[in-house]
Automatic annotation (TrEMBL):
<feature type="transmembrane region" description="Helical">
    <location>
        <begin position="23"/>
        <end position="39"/>
    </location>
</feature>
<keyword id="KW-1133">Transmembrane helix</keyword>
<feature type="transmembrane region" description="Helical">
    <location>
        <begin position="107"/>
        <end position="126"/>
    </location>
</feature>
<feature type="transmembrane region" description="Helical">
    <location>
        <begin position="305"/>
        <end position="326"/>
    </location>
</feature>
<feature type="transmembrane region" description="Helical">
    <location>
        <begin position="280"/>
        <end position="299"/>
    </location>
</feature>
<keyword id="KW-1003">Cell membrane</keyword>
<dbReference type="InterPro" id="IPR001851">
    <property type="entry name" value="ABC_transp_permease"/>
</dbReference>
<feature type="transmembrane region" description="Helical">
    <location>
        <begin position="170"/>
        <end position="192"/>
    </location>
</feature>
<feature type="transmembrane region" description="Helical">
    <location>
        <begin position="133"/>
        <end position="150"/>
    </location>
</feature>
<feature type="transmembrane region" description="Helical">
    <location>
        <begin position="257"/>
        <end position="273"/>
    </location>
</feature>
<feature type="transmembrane region" description="Helical">
    <location>
        <begin position="83"/>
        <end position="101"/>
    </location>
</feature>
<keyword id="KW-0472">Membrane</keyword>
<protein>
    <submittedName>
        <fullName>ABC transporter permease</fullName>
    </submittedName>
</protein>
<feature type="transmembrane region" description="Helical">
    <location>
        <begin position="59"/>
        <end position="76"/>
    </location>
</feature>
<keyword id="KW-0812">Transmembrane</keyword>
<dbReference type="Pfam" id="PF02653">
    <property type="entry name" value="BPD_transp_2"/>
</dbReference>
<feature type="transmembrane region" description="Helical">
    <location>
        <begin position="223"/>
        <end position="245"/>
    </location>
</feature>
Length: 336
């Protein structure tokens, strides 16, 4: 192969990589700019405590946004992620306490519950042949009912040593929650993205009929995507328990995290039509959305106007997610 051919090939690889990661890179740049504005206007400035507080809040939505990403990549949507999040928060406030062994089994129990909820969603969508939006609205209501049975009133407790370890700082002022989120990415997302199963999920989201004609295991891929979504939501439920030291069956929080997760995946460059995007982009999208709320607080916007402003941001985010599809004539070009 000639030098010119090699140069053209490497140039094409870089262009392909940039095109694939464009949404993630844009979300990263926007987050850095917004966070710089936030810290420069915060009374405490850019300090370890400010960063840690922001990280603890941002990680909660980032985990739920990652959960939503797995399902959105299959061209579906999961309106139960916020309810799984709340259910696991209520469950954790009952069982993630006591000795180290008891706490370990409690954490495993919460993760297993989230995984089971996601698997149930996947089974209903795949084998019940229901639209994801209908199926997950129904299961979300059921999950919330269970959460109410577990925590009719806010309360409970959690292992304080574990909670403090995961919500404070490591040496150098590094937020422990940010490190934990990085571990989740390395342990769950990266292996999934590089696996054959991950490629099938992207193929299903791009064109399920083409994936079927290619002999790919569509049902298995979609089932795993929903199950992993439930698992990520349960990790988020654990973290909110660590942050608040309590459990609460809050319908408001369940709905808010569900809707905000959709905004986060779009802001992070994940296509609502499936087959395109990254959970890493969704993480930065979640951090952008959380930083918007912090900016409204720093600039002392009237609290009565904040829900309206965030609602407008949510609407714009969803519209932007659809804009690229509107511009093209052939939907297949979206995945070219």
């Amino acid at each position: 192969m000639t030098d010119q051919a090699l140069t053209a090939r490497h140039g094409g690889d870089w262009r392909y990589w940039f095109g694939e990661q464009r949404g993630t890179l844009l979300a990263l740049a926007v987050f850095i700019a917004m966070f710089a504005i936030y810290t420069s206007n915060h009374p405490a400035g850019f300090s370890a405590d400010v960063v840690t507080t922001a990280a603890n809040k941002g990680v909660l939505l980032a985990l739920v946004a990652m959960a939503q990403t797995f399902v959105v990549l299959t061209a579906g949507i999961d309106l139960s992620v916020g309810f799984i999040f709340i259910l696991c928060n209520c469950l954790a406030s009952h069982i993630v306490l006591g000795s180290a062994i008891q706490t370990t089994f409690g954490v495993i129990g919460v993760l297993a519950a989230g995984l089971a909820c996601g698997a149930l969603n996947g089974a209903i969508v795949i084998y019940g042949r229901l639209q994801p939006i209908v199926a997950t609205i129904a299961t979300g209501a059921a999950f919330y009912g269970i959460a109410l049975l577990l925590r009719e009133q806010p309360g409970g407790d959690v292992n304080e040593a574990l909670a403090d370890f995961l919500t404070n700082q490591f040496p150098g002022g590094i937020p422990a929650s940010a490190v934990a989120l990085l571990v989740v990415v390395l342990v769950i997302w990266i292996p999934f993205r590089k696996s054959m199963l991950g490629r099938v999920v992207y193929a299903v989201g791009s064109s399920e009929s083409a994936a079927y004609m290619s002999g790919l295991h569509i049902r298995r891929a979609k089932f795993i995507a929903y199950a992993l979504g439930g698992l990520l939501a349960s990790i988020g439920g654990l973290f909110i328990t660590f942050v608040t030291y309590t459990g609460e069956a809050s319908l408001t929080n369940a709905n808010t995290y569900t809707l905000n997760s959709i905004a986060a995946v779009v802001l992070g460059g994940v296509s609502l039509f499936g087959g395109r995007g990254s959970a890493i982009g969704a993480i930065f999208g979640a951090l952008i959305f959380r930083t918007i709320g912090d900016l409204l607080f720093v600039f002392d916007l009237d609290p009565l106007w904040q829900p309206l402003f965030l609602g407008v941001v949510l609407l714009i985010s969803v519209c932007l997610g659809s804009f690229r599809l509107i511009r093209i004539r052939n939907r297949l070009d979206l995945f070219g």
